[in-house]
Design goal:
9 helices; about 0% strand; Regulator of G-protein Signalling 4, domain 2; mainly alpha; single chain
Amino acid sequence: MSSHDVAPRAAPSRNPCCLCWCCCCSCSWNQERRRTWQASRESKLQPLSSCAACAPPSPEEVQSWAQSFDKLMHSPAGRSVFRAFLRTEYSEENMLFWLACEELKTEANQHVVDEKARLIYEDYVSILSPKEVSLDSRVREGINRKMQEPSAHTFDDAQLQIYTLMHRDSYPRFLSSPTYRALLLPQPPQSSEA
């Protein structure tokens, strides 16, 4: 038997219902998985009444955000306020992508990593996504290669590129925005009378 008679081996697929590596198919298994993930992610990204980000930040914390972008991004309240600002600039997807990448890095279960990586790809990297983030072709090609065997660090280069974009582009505008300036104003003491 010659090598011409052997059928080419199909690439291994982690998705048992189809051979599409990016899970762009519309099979029922994929749709249910997407609905579950979307509901989970949306509940995590919405402000919660008891979360630390909902408590008003101290004046010192607000002032520290102007010292460095890292301080802003390490503060839950800072990320919340900055995300609201990005929403007004129609670039909230940058923060959502960064948060999704941070969440992916905490995952140890390979099956969950595979699913989250594919959904991050579909939501923020795919050119078909309405929430596509701006990535250069080198980074995008790297992600496409890594998606063959996703890991918790598949999007590290892209996450750094988006972090840098927010730092250089949106962060200076945020610091001069009415949103940030209002937080710097002294807040009147709240009355304890009902």
